Amino acid sequence: MPSLRDIPAPAKINLFLHVTGRRADGYHLLQTAFRFIDLQDTLHIATRDDGRIVRINDIPGVPEDDDLVVRAARSLQAATGCTLGADIELIKQIPMGGGLGGGSSDAASTLLALNRLWNCGLTREQLMELALPLGADVPVFVFGRNAFAEGVGEKLSPLDLPPRWYVIVQPDASVPTPEIFRAPELTRDSAPVRIADFSGSNTSSSLKNDLEPVAFARFPEVARIAGVVNEVLADGMQSNVLDPGRKVRMSGSGACLFVECDTPEQASWAVDQIAGRMRQRSSERSGTAVEESMTDLPYVRINRVCAGLAVHPLLEWVA
After folding, report:
1. Same domain for 72 and 85
2. Could you tell me which of 229, 281, 274 has the C-alpha nearest to residue 250?
3. Are strands 85-91 and 53-55 parallel, antiparallel or unpaired?
4. Residue among 224, 238, 242 at smallest CA distance from 278
5. Catalytic: 137?
6. I need a labelling partner for 21 at 20 to 30 A (CA). Which of 5, 97, 208, 239 fits?
C-alpha cells in the first residue's frame, strides 16, 4: 500500500496576539500574525485497506482517540467517504503546552498527506473547512503561508515576512490554553490593528500578546525565565551586539518565549548567553558547578535558534 515518510509539521510563533472581543458562544475574537519556524515534528504515514486509523507509537499524555492526527484522519474519512485507513507514526520535537502549535500542525500535515495518499482530491479551501473544528490554529497550517489572522483565527491573509531568526526558549513549565482564556483578568478589548499597519517586526511597541500577563501571573516560572532573557537582551543592546528594541515575547498562550533577531549570529549569541546564565543560576542555587558541556539546561526545556520560514514546506501539496 502507498506510504509517505518524513512528512514535516513545522511549529509556529505568534508575532503578536490581541484579544479584541468575545462572541456570544464564548469564542474569543483575535488578531495575530503567524510565522512558521524550522522546529518541526515528523510524520510517517502508510495506507491501510481495512479503514482503520492507527497511531502506531505512544505519545505520553495523549490517548490515541484524543490525538489530533487521529481525529484529522477520521474527519477526512467522514467528509469524503474514503474506505481506506492509515498507520500513523508521529515523532515529536515541538514541545506540548508551549504555544508553538505542534498538535495543530500535526493535524494539518495529516490532512494534507492523507488527501494525497487517499486521492481524495479536496482543495485547500475544503481542507481548511475540515481543519477549523479540530482547532483554531489548524487552518493556518493548511493555508500554508505566514498569515495575518482575525476572527477566531480562521480569517487569514498572507504575509510576506523578511528573513528572521528566533531565539526560542521554553521554561520548564506547560501552560494549558483553556485556563488562560477563561481567566477573568484577561484583556478582551484590545484596539484592532490594520494589516497595513503591521510591519512584521517584533520590535513594534504597538504589538503585544494579551495572554502574556495572565500566563506570567499564573505561572511564575515563565515570568522568571522571561526576566532572565530580558537581562541578556539588555546586555546585548548595551554592548551593541544586538540591535535596539529587542524584547522577549510569549508565543500563543505560552509557555514558550521568543526573541526576533536580524541575523543568525545575533540569535546564537543570545542562546549562548541564556545558557550561561541558566547554568550560573543553577550553580548559585545548588552550590555545585554545572558542567559547560551538559546538554540539558536547568530551568528550561528548549533554548535554541530557529529560522523563520517563508512558506509551509507542504504548500505545494494541494491546490
Report:
1. yes
2. 229
3. parallel
4. 224
5. yes
6. 97
Reduced to 3 states (helix: H, G, I; strand: E, B; else coil), residue 158 is: strand
Which domain-ending residue is among 137, 160, 183?
Answer: 160
Cα separations in angstroms, 292 against 77, 172, 272, 278, 297: 51, 19, 11, 11, 10
CB 209 within 8 A of CB 249: yes
Determine the Cα angle at 181 with ends 306 and 204, to 5°. 45
Dist CA 4 CA 122 (whole Å): 18
DSSP secondary structure letter of residue 318 = -
pLDDT in tens, 168-221: 999 988 888 889 999 999 989 898 888 877 765 555 556 899 999 999 999 999
Q: Whole-angstrom Cα distance, residue 114 to residue 77?
A: 9
Asked about 12 being catalytic, the answer comes back as yes
Residue-range definition of the domain harbouring residue 117: 3-160
Note the Cα 158 to chain centre separation in Å.
17
Q: How many domains does the chain have?
A: 2
pLDDT tens digits, residue range 208-217?
999 999 999 9
Q: What is the amino acid identity at position 249?
A: R
Q: Note whether 35 and 69 are same-domain residues.
A: yes
User: Residues 12, 41, 67, 210: which is the catalytic one?
Assistant: 12
Identified catalytic residue from 41, 137, 208, 247? 137
